[in-house]
Amino acid sequence: KAGVTQTPRYLIKTRGQQVTLSCSPISGHRSVSWYQQTPGQGLQFLFEYFSETQRNKGNFPGRFSGRQFSNSRSEMNVSTLELGDSALYLCASSLKVQGMETQYFGPGTRLLVL
Amino acid sequence: AQKVTQAQTEISVVEKEDVTLDCVYETRDTTYYLFWYKQPPSGELVFLIRRNSFDEQNEISGRYSWNFQKSTSSFNFTITASQVVDSAVYFCALSEAVSGYSTLTFGKGTMLLVSP
């Protein structure tokens, strides 16, 4: 079974621009979560989507948004990029029918904001 | 609020040595899960183990073993006879029932360097 895939793998943007990152979950998985990883703050939860609905959101500004499509694929968008948005963005998927399900991560998208 | 502490920022060992990575967590929830993930230089987080709060049995998987102690809120990870391929950053994480298990709270990670 193919793992979680993320595109693009690397991205360079300039301040003020916006960016869209894509995540395709493991086949059959319905929950997709996004995390930001930076050297200073470590791994931080951004949001989780299940059945096209955002179920949980971390403590990030409104510039960070996401959505999930009917095939469970997800995108996250960051508008008005700031230098501090440079990070590794990781997507994770899980079955999440009920209760606890292990989250499996993709390879991430490395975003550099200049 | 939930919190995961990995006090060891970096550990260096020589191949074949045993090494233990420490993890201490804080939660007010009575039902929660603990995890360990491995992050090699490629960046992908690789799932290693999941433990729920009601299961304090230690687990062994090959050279890996985990010691979960609720009394000390710890979930430590031991690698026996370490190998160069074990070099990576290891993260301990917590997921609570109160959040519907939607989120993982990670520690800062421990970088393990295994030299030949």
Task: Tell me about this structure.
- The complex is a heterodimer of chains A (114) and B (116).
- Chain A has 114 residues and is an all-beta fold.
- Chain A is built from no helices and eleven strands.
- In chain A, the strands form two sheets. In chain A, strands 2, 4, 5, 6, 9, 10 and 11 form a seven-stranded mixed sheet that branches. Chain A has a four-stranded antiparallel sheet with strand order 1-3-8-7, with no helix packed on it.
- Chain B is mainly β.
- Chain B has strands at residues 3-5, 10-14, 19-21, 24-26, 32-39, 46-52, 59-61, 64-69, 74-79, 88-96, 105-106, 110-115.
- In chain B, strand 7 and strand 8 (64-69) form a beta hairpin.
Keywords:
heterodimer; A: mainly beta; four-stranded antiparallel β-sheet; globular; B: about 120 residues; mainly beta; about 55% strand
Largest beta-sheet details of chain B:
6 strands, mixed
Which H/E pattern describes the elements of chain A?
A: EEEEEEEEEEE
Structural class of chain B: mainly beta
Helical content of chain B stands at under 10%
State the separation between the terminal residues of chain B, measured CA to CA.
Answer: 41 Å
Radius of gyration of chain B over alpha carbons?
14 Å
Mean pLDDT of chain A: 94
> What would you report as the Rg of chain A, rounded to the nearest angstrom?
13 Å
Largest sheet of chain A: 7 strands, mixed
Tertiary shape of chain B: globular
In short:
The complex is a heterodimer of chains A (114) and B (116). Chain A has strands at residues 5-7, 10-13, 19-24, 31-38, 42-50, 53-57, 64-68, 74-78, 87-94, 104-105, 109-113.
